[in-house]
Each structure stands twice: as C-alpha cells, then as structure tokens.
Amino acid sequence: MCDETISEKISVLTDTILDDYNKGKDIDGSCPYDQPDKKAIIDIINKMQIIIFPGHFKNSSYKVYTKRSGLSMLLEDVMFNLKKQITLVLGFSESYATLDDYAKSDAAAELTLEFLGRIPHIREYIETDVQAAFDGDPAAFNKDEIIYSYPGLYAIFVNRIAHELFTLRVPMIPRIMTEHAHSLTGIDIHPGASIGKYFFIDHGTGIVIGETTEIGDNVKIYQGVTLGALSTRGGQSLRNKKRHPTIRDNVTIYSGASILGGDTVIGRDVVIGGNAFITKSIAAGAKVSIKNQELRYNYDSKHPVEQCEVDGDAAWFYII
Predict the structure, then answer these.
(1) Inter-residue contact 48 to 35 (CB < 8 Å)
(2) How high is the pLDDT of residue 58?
(3) In percent, how much of the chain has pLDDT > 90?
(4) CA pair distance 87, 79, nearest whole angstrom
C-alpha cells in the first residue's frame, strides 16, 4: 500500500473519530485542561517519599547545603504542584463546583497547607509500620531493607498520604495515588480505609481492602486477603454506607482469607487461617480455620489413593 493511500485512509479515520467525539459519550470527558495530571500526582508521591524518609531517598536535582534548605525546597515544590492539581479537581466536588477559579485556587491552597501540616502525623504512623514489618518478618535483614524494598510498606505509605487527602474531601487525587501503588505492588487499598498503627502486609500481592474497612492497631495481613463487601449489586445506592468489615487490634489474617460485609467485626486477638471465608462477626480471641481438609496421594496405578486429614489446630497451619 502506497503512502498516498495510507494518508487518505488516515484522513478519513480522523474525520470519523472526530465525528464520534461529538456524540456525548462519557469517555469524551470535559475540557481537557481541567483534568488532573497523573504524572504530576505520581511526582508528588515521590517527593513525599523523600520527605517521609529523609535518610533513605534523595532528589539529585536539588543542590543544597543543609537539611533545612532541602526540606524547604521540597515542601515548596509539593505545595505548588499539589495546590495546582487540587485546584483542577475541585470542580468534581459538589461543595466546590460553583466556585470561580480564584476561589477554587484559594480553597486548594488551604487544603494543601492542611495536608502538609499532617506530615508529622503520617510519619508517626509510618514509623510504626516499619517496626511492625521488622518485628513480624524473620526474613527482614534490617529496617532499611524494608523501607527500600517491601511492596507492603510502599502500599501503606501511599495509602497514609492518600487517606489524609481523602479525609479532607479532595476529589480524585487520593484514588489516583492508591491505584498507582496498586499497579506497582498488586495491593489494592482504597484511600477511604481507616488503618491503625503497626500495620504489616507480608508478601502482599492480591490484597484488597475496601473503602469503609476499619483496621485497628497491630494487624498483620498476608497475600491474597480480601476485606470486601458482601455484594455491590446495589451500585451507587450503596454509596456512603458501611460495606466492609471492621478488624480490631492484634488480628492476624493468613493468605487467601476473605472477610466480607459491613456488619462483620473481627474481635481482638483473632487469628484467621488461610482460605477462610467469613461473613459473620468473630468473637475476640478466636482461631478460625477450614475444617476437615484432606490431602490425597496417588503415586501410581498400582497403589490406592491415600488420604490424610489435616490437623487444623496444628501451629504450622497458620504459618506462611
């Protein structure tokens, strides 16, 4: 096919697609200049990582002589860019939709300053998360290894930031942040989830924590765990309702377990065994496991199948 023919076909396709843009589809969006910049939001996450972990992450583009000047430049950078992104998204909130551009900018500045003022609070919680990971994982060489390499800690770090923006009722940006972490780690934590201190996610891949989940202190979760809703068939009619479980302090949830429902409360000191499916509350101190698991062995056609029942009370049943 010659270049001239290709050019003609591209011209026809351009006209066809432009015409389709005028049919009022939701995916066409509104003014492209009023949309948040995902790359800018990811850059804010990276700058916040330097602020939260000043001894572990650096910004080589800054040439500074003192910790104070370096921190000041970072805060100004985050202030400028986060304020800009919040200004762009405030129109998606009914509370701010009727404001003019100047009023939105002022509101965004106030929200950004309020968020930045919460950094010591975020660092307080992150410090406990690092400690929980070190205390809970015998494979951890030291805390530096956890900070640099553990996907669970990264997902928690991003969620701690996004959750503060969520509680400030900043639209869209918190979810963009947590979905970025989700794409990197396989850990899906909604920014609305409330999470206490000393939270540890081990291994991490496949974890889902829903919007209205409440998690207490000293909770440990392994890969493949779902803290979800019983049903979402109601769609938007379920908005702002408690759909996800409450996990009290000192709970351990092993791999593959699903805990569902807004009325489901897992009491203090409970241990949930692997692959358990729970839709009702569990009293404090209980140990939950799958009953009567069996292993089947069939070595070859000359030997009958052997069965071995798994002892659900054995300590190894809960170990990953």
Answers:
(1) no
(2) 80
(3) 66
(4) 12
Domains and CATH numbers, the chain: 31-188 (1.10.3130.10), 193-320 (2.160.10.10)
Closest CA to 319 of 258, 271, 284: 271
Q: Which of 150, 151, 173, 153 is nearest to 162 (CA)?
A: 173
Cα(205)–Cα(46) distance, rounded to whole angstroms? 22
pLDDT in tens, 280-302: 999 999 999 887 666 667 666 66
* Inter-CA distances, 195 with 122, 128, 189, 220, 240, Å: 12, 12, 10, 11, 18
For 133-140, the CB contacts below 8 A with 24+ separation are 133/200, 133/202, 136/200, 136/202, 136/220, 137/200, 137/202
Tokens representing residue 88 in the block: 């762009």
Question: At which residue do the structure tokens 């959750």 appear?
Answer: 163
